[in-house]
# Entry
Amino acid sequence: MKTSTPAAGSAAPHLIADAVELVHSYPQMPLTVDCVIFGFDENKLKVLLIRSDLEVYKGKWSLLGDIVKQTEELDDAAYRVLRERTGMTDVYLKQVQAFSSLNRHPGGRVVTVAYCSLLNIRHHELQITDNELHWQNVRSLKDMAFDHKEIIDACYNWLQKRIQEHPLGFNLLPEKFSLRELQNLYEAILNVELDRRNFRKKFFSMDFLIDTGELEEDVNHRPGKLYQFNFEKYEKSKRKWIGIDF
Amino acid sequence: MKTSTPAAGSAAPHLIADAVELVHSYPQMPLTVDCVIFGFDENKLKVLLIRSDLEVYKGKWSLLGDIVKQTEELDDAAYRVLRERTGMTDVYLKQVQAFSSLNRHPGGRVVTVAYCSLLNIRHHELQITDNELHWQNVRSLKDMAFDHKEIIDACYNWLQKRIQEHPLGFNLLPEKFSLRELQNLYEAILNVELDRRNFRKKFFSMDFLIDTGELEEDVNHRPGKLYQFNFEKYEKSKRKWIGIDF
DNA sequence: ATTGAATGTGTATTAATTACATGAATTTTC
DNA sequence: GAAAATTCATGTAATTAATACACATTCAAT
# Structure
């Protein structure tokens, strides 16, 4: 998953043995990943939660997470959680932050690395059959297990910032979307109201939207045009951005 | 260091015991922190390195890092490294990213969390007596131990981005600085040339610079005014920032 | 006193952001 | 099927921010 810098791969065996011995002397601790999985539905930003499997937290909601295996990279562990829980593979996923409070887990010292994931709540692969799972409004979280409220807050802040600088939002929408849907998404995530005309102007001037020529269906008013995001063109443009401002 | 959400602190003892048993069944692994300590000197961005203590990496430079203790938070471990190595306490320090490649350490699986630290290279508390330490130009790194080149690159990218949105840069300068020094800092970090008049206009319009009334000394040309950054005023302003752009 | 080098400031141009109003397409209502 | 209601689609003027650019001032060195 991560590009790896081979670490002294061809060094003499006794040197490696020394290093191995050193590492064996290091204190060890359990490491987990927790996925903050965002979805967008009914014009609200949602997060996917599961009932805590700990009796101490009975009834409380928690994030989807798991231990990191001895020979597993963090990204892979997070993808594994996503795959096992949602059945989805090509999902947006980024590491956000490690949390290490000593008392964050009632069972003892557990360090966790939080990941932010974005997916389309209507995606056909997404089979949330487990009735212990549910999508909850991001702004009505309370009484969560562990430090998961804090973790979600961190990921939500991260998302609010990131979505303004990178085209992440499209991961939350269907492949084809109307401009109104896109604006609703931004308004929900940023918790602001935006002027429709200026919003459209902004996105059109970026010139990354492809007009599919299709129209919305099953909508009880004049249907809007459907667009796709031109990821290919975006990748090529890669703007260099200087704008000191604080 | 981190605000901690007490985890089911008052739950029944047998429930805690269950949780403890669960955590004991988790795989464990060594965890370290690595500090990317930036300094600014001779109009160049520098990073503080130390000779690797591993024989496998004999002669190569590495970051300042250490193991995370069983009952130590990540932030505290990073601060400890800073304190022990530089003698400095009130230092800018932020977690950046965890690195977990399986082969990143020749002695076996070691996950590390990278921190970005900024300090004034001339600070009187900074005692780099150890001649195994040295400040190296960020843009002339090669042949580093572990994946430390990759870690520095990540922190450097993080810094380039962050410094445009938050007043971090001042941590690299003396308390009182000239506008020219400030501009040199930005130019060095962002690797661009900026127009002097527009740069000044920009900073003055933010209105966070305090004119100390003092002038530069020991400079063989017309001395510039010395300014301080008004952190207090900045903290109060906390602009809310909406600017979709990518 | 003259030269050199860096500081300090202002203005005109361009680009980006904001505020704001009307006509067109489609569904619902009567 | 005509009228009402709703949402889509678009343009322009005013403001604000970013950029490009030139000259007078201060101090040090000679």
Chain A is about 30% helix and 25% strand.
